[in-house]
Amino acid sequence: MREHPARTAPGRVPVTSLNHPTGWFDTPLGGYSGSMDQPSRPLTIALIDDYDVVVLGIARMLEPFADRVVIAEMDTNEPLNDAVDVVLYDSFAQSESDGGADIASLVRNPKARRVVVYTWSFHPDLVAAARRLRVDGYLSKALPARQLVEALEAVHAGEVVISDPAGRVRSAPGLNWPGREEGLTDRESEILALITQGRSNAEVCALTFLSPNTVKSYIRGLYRKIGVSSRTQAVLWGVAHGFTPDHRRIDHWRGGP
User: If we measure between CA atoms, which residue out of 170, 116, 124 comes closest to residue 143?
Assistant: First the structure.
């Protein structure tokens, strides 16, 4: 297991300098204001998600900061040969609450110097599980690109950065997800992705920490938007519109060095 720097007493500071829309960063290494010195070279970042459209959206969002972050892994057919400064694990339709096996694999892999979860979901159980796995960051998908880069630089510098938004927030400008062009919201897209993976409503509830009635409401809404009336039709629509996951990106990391 990777060793983390020695930690000082936990601190909780408002992120006024970052203009964070939802309030706080939890920084066990004494506080993060976003004013730290930038590294002497761009950080190398590996993006992990089973959906290319999600990964490409993050990459495009970070393009204006190419002098500070460089995407080191994009192609699922080409495993990464060198270590990266930060692995950014996007939790879209992933098994984050399903035991955290993927995250644990990343944390164990010596090619991942730091591991950060990038997510909409801040249920206390998810945050606690991630911290038990010793991730280096747990960042909100509401963070604008500049603030995301600043948080990644803080993680690279040795801080453990946990953003703590109050409730569900909108995704940062530039992010993408399957079905967006057809009018699906980020949450509707994630639920349809889980349905396309063969998950039951109960499993969707467990993975998203949503109530059964909320999940049913999302399903009814997305059915209307894509013009289907049954689960089978929804799965077929999902398969035809890019909702089938591609596990090769995370499989490269599960294989170890």
Answer: 170
Considering only 4-8, 115-119, 123-127, 150-154, which range has the smallest mean pLDDT?
4-8
pTM of the model: 0.76
Cα(105)–Cα(153) distance, integer angstroms = 22
How do residues 70-102 score in pLDDT, each as one tens digit?
988 654 445 556 789 999 998 887 765 555 788
CB atoms within 10 A of CB 151: 28
Q: Which domains does the chain have, with CATH numbers?
A: 11-172 (3.40.50.2300), 180-240 (1.10.10.10)
Q: What is the pLDDT of residues 189-247, one digit of tens each?
A: 999 999 999 999 999 998 888 899 999 999 999 999 999 999 999 999 999 998 988 76
The answer to whether the beta carbons of residues 190 and 214 sit under 8 Å apart is no
Count Cα neighbours of 124 within 13 Å in the Cβ-side half-sphere.
Answer: 0
